[in-house]
Amino acid sequence: MVVNEKVKLAITVASLVAATVLFVAEYRRRRRKPTSSPSSCYLHSDKKPQFGFKRILADNSYSGFKHLKKVSSSSTDKPSNCHPYETEITALLENPRLDEFEFLRGEYSLEMSESYVWVETEFELEKLAETLAKQKVFAVDTEQHSLRSFLGFTALIQISTQEEDFLVDTIALHDAMSILRPVFSNPDICKVFHGADNDVLWLQRDFHIYVVNMFDTAKACEVLAKPQRSLAYLLESVCGVATNKLLQREDWRQRPLSEEMVRYARTDAHYLLYIANNMTAELRQLGIEDSSSPDDKFSFLLEACRRSNMICLQLYTKETEDFPGNAAASSLIYRHLNGHEDNSSISLDAKFQELVRELCAWRDLMARIHDESTRYVLSDQAVIALASKQPSTSEEIYDSVAQADLASESSPSAVICSHLDDVYQITQHKLGKLDVILPLVLDKCLGTDGTCPISVFNYSLLVNFNTKLTHRSAPKKNAHKNLKRFTRKTSRDLFVKKFSCKAPVYHNCRIYANDGRLLCYCDRRKLEWYMSRGLAKLVEEDPLAIMLLFEPKGRPEDEGNDFYIQSKKNICVGCGEGNHYLRYRIIPSCYRVHFPEHLKSHRSHDIVLLCVDCHEVAHAAAERYKKEVATEFGIPLFVRRVMDSKEAQGAECESTGESEDAGVSPLHLRTAAMALLRHGNRMPSSRREELLQTVKMYYGGRDITEEDLEKALLIGMSPHERRKLERKKGVSLKQENGTNDADANSFEEAPPEGDMNGESSVAGDDSGGDGAPELNDTQCNGNILHQQNSKLSLLGHGPHGKQVVEYLLKEYGEDGVRDFCQRWRKVFVDALHPRHLPGGWDVTHSGRRDFGEFSVYNPTKKVSTG
Ligand code: AMP
Ligand code: ZN
Ligand code: MN
User: Fold this and answer.
1) Per-residue pLDDT tens for 434-459?
2) pLDDT digit string, tens, across residues 736-781
3) Ligand 1 binding site (Cβ under 6 Å of any ligand atom)
């Protein structure tokens, strides 16, 4: 070991010295190189292997990646770009095939023989597919090339069976790789990988190959809590084989592969079956040692298996950003400024930053046009060098780049060399500002007399580019910032458009008593109700007002309910925003639906209009307070969604509250869904996975569709809006027009429904303002609603609301409920400091009112007051 280390050190030092000598020589050579810009692009003479590919699934345009669509799949309700084998993988997650974890049969020698099969023709690939179709298991690894390609491509796939090692030349066979799709997606064949996270995505990206049934030895390491998870570690500790992982970074486009590279590549797949076999034995053993019940003995194996197949569910996405090169530019600027806190003059910063952004945008576009990595086009340190030196001649530009990249033999890149003029113009600010540079450059390169060849990689860039950039209304200054603001504003506008009330909520029609005193403001429908029954006469046309022809019970102001005789503005009570608003329920419905009928009546007092921003603030505060309530009363809170009657029967409606982990807060749910819908395809996959988990938890762990996300968004919306949306989609929650006439005597304009629905009749779905529709006992035990409509969103905090209200009533009677309401009003006011609450609105609003004979709220009629 010690000797080994010394040798390694010596080699390192020697290589460093050699490298330095080479760099200096190279630098001198480059300095002598003429830097006048060539008239034509290097791609006319430099033939890169990928230009022979005919079928490109992930091109270099800014548009998203399209996943394989299975023709056989009959389900039309699946979203367009979902995992084509989601069902199969989910089935494996639910029913792992433990009996099949015999990775080796009969005689097996660890030795790697001299012979292997090089697969480079379609015929050979067909043979391989036939061979693999007969296997129960095979091992896989892939090698990528990423420097001279924008998205990278798979240059080699290594496949090993117990008998043979195959090296598949995926450059030669790029367009024929679909031949291997069936074996990879066959759930009866287990594919062993090590650290498959990237491999599964690469296989999707290049070949629409999806892995179903996988055992990942890195995941097994995780479950076994091995000290290391690298393949090199396993090779050494399990097989006693040393491997030089530095070869990983070789240029895998090279043909023929060197002997060393072949050996390395084979090693990466050859031993995997043996390693997997050992590890499953270990996992089983651990299960037996650890478990008390015999059924548990596979739990470690199960877990490794589950984690492996989770990887298969990952979907490849192209990274997107608000503006080309934006992310790279921001991180470069951030890193640079952090490194130079002390001196750099502020005046220089603005210019420096602008140049960094322009160069990053240019580099991004050039990389896409030429199918190169951005780091190949222009390295980060070269961007910094150019932006800080701001060279004024082409020669100076070339020298700055060469000097910044002394260590890299591919710099200055062919792109820089043949497009030096662009860089010159950018540094001289001759191309204009950021937002005009890109269309200009694209036109220069790929336009009618463009300098660069059009390829399968950049063609759709040309087609899609205009739509990507012409939407922008960004003024010249701070284009990227404006663009960001612009996109944020657009998505907010969309949100508002989708969910806010479409018409004024308050019609502010008036009802007078027959003595001329104002009874209330209300909506048009309520007026019509009285008019059509001859119970009132019209006294004013505009704004509409009627006078009742009978003697109503009581007068609002006599009861201290001034609130009801105030006209109400159609604005956000929080900030006064008048262009959009949605209804917000101050008392969360999960409690209110369980109030005695006559205490529910004051909905117009406790339902207000809020703009989306205030809505979010109020909603968040309410969610926090619910948690406090849960703690205070010792009645836990959770939401979960039950999908349909079948699932509902299986799903327990625990009332014990042990199920915190089976639920998710509505706020989390909504923000996760929102983020996924808005940015899902451009966020890092780890973040996406995290958010998906939140939403999945809500959906009982099953996989989710875009439609699910949209539904999750509605959590926190007003029930009225939600119903409207559901109606639009053809899903009706319940009978809307029941006999509500009994409500006629409740004199108030009720924002939640905007109509004359009595609360009693809407109780079942009266549930959204607080983000927590109910899952009440009837629904839970009887499945009544599930059977009525399987698509119904039945979610809530379980029995929390009901139990809290029952407790309040039992301990303190109705006063307890009134106090509880006051607490919620206070939470609302404290969170929002609303400046536009209607006159008469009051935290201590008593809710004591008289009810007409016909009113459902009439306590003498329905509920006996305690
Ligand atoms: P492996 O999983 O070790 O077979 O690596 C597969 C491919 O991932 C390689 O061909 C490389 O293109 C890429 N890769 C993995 N790790 C690195 C690394 N540390 N540096 C550069 N490329 C890497
Ligand atoms: Zn070019
Ligand atoms: Mn490898």
Assistant:
1) 778 888 888 889 887 789 988 889 88
2) 333 333 333 344 444 433 332 222 222 223 333 332 222 222 222 2
3) 141, 143-144, 146, 195, 248-249, 252, 268
Closest-CA residue, ligand 1 atom 10, reads: 143
**What separation in Å is there between the alpha carbon of 184 and the centre of ligand 1?**
21
Residues 6+ away with beta carbon under 8 Å from 158 = 139, 140, 141, 142, 143, 165, 166, 167, 168, 265, 266, 268, 269, 270
More confident residue, 145 or 690: 145
234 burial class (0-12, 13-18, 19+ CB within 10 angstroms)? buried
Q: Do residues 122 and 174 make contact, with C-beta atoms less than 8 angstroms apart?
A: no
Can you give the pLDDT at residue 539? 81
Mutate to test the pocket of ligand 1, among 248, 261, 262 (most ligand atoms within 8 A of CB): 248
Q: Helices marked H in 763-838 — which ranges?
A: 777, 784-788, 800-832
CA–CA gap between residue 299 and residue 287 (Å, rounded): 6
> Could you tell me which residues come within 8 angstroms of residue 147 by beta carbon, excluding any fewer than 6 positions away?
251, 372, 373, 375, 376, 410
Half-sphere exposure of 412 (CA within 13 A, CB side): 29
C-alpha to C-alpha distance for 619 and 425, rounded to whole angstroms: 52
543 and 577 in contact (C-beta within 8 Å)?
A: no
Residues, beta carbon < 5 Å, ion ligand 2: 41, 452
Q: Tell me the pLDDT tens digit for each residue of 567-590.
A: 677 788 888 887 778 888 899 888
Is 533 buried (19+), middle (13-18) or exposed (0-12) by CB count in 10 A?
A: exposed
Which residues are registered as beta bridge partners of 536? 548
Q: How far apart are CA 431 and CA 762, in angstroms?
A: 63
Q: Which residues of 730-761 are buried (b: 16+ CB within 10 A; e: fewer)?
A: eeebeeeeeebebbbbbbbbbbbbbbbbbbbb
Cα–ligand 1 centroid distance for 9 (angstroms): 23
Q: How far apart are the first and last CA of the chain?
A: 85
Ligand 1 atom with the smallest distance to the CA of 250 is 10
Which pTM was predicted? 0.55
The pLDDT tens digits for 313-367 are 999 999 888 788 988 998 888 888 776 655 555 445 788 889 999 999 999 999 9
What is the CA 128 to chain-centroid distance, rounded? Answer: 38
Task: Report DSSP letters for 154-179, one per residue.
Answer: EEEEEEE-SS-EEEEETTTTGGGGGG
Bridge partners of 138? 191
Higher pLDDT, 529 or 158: 158
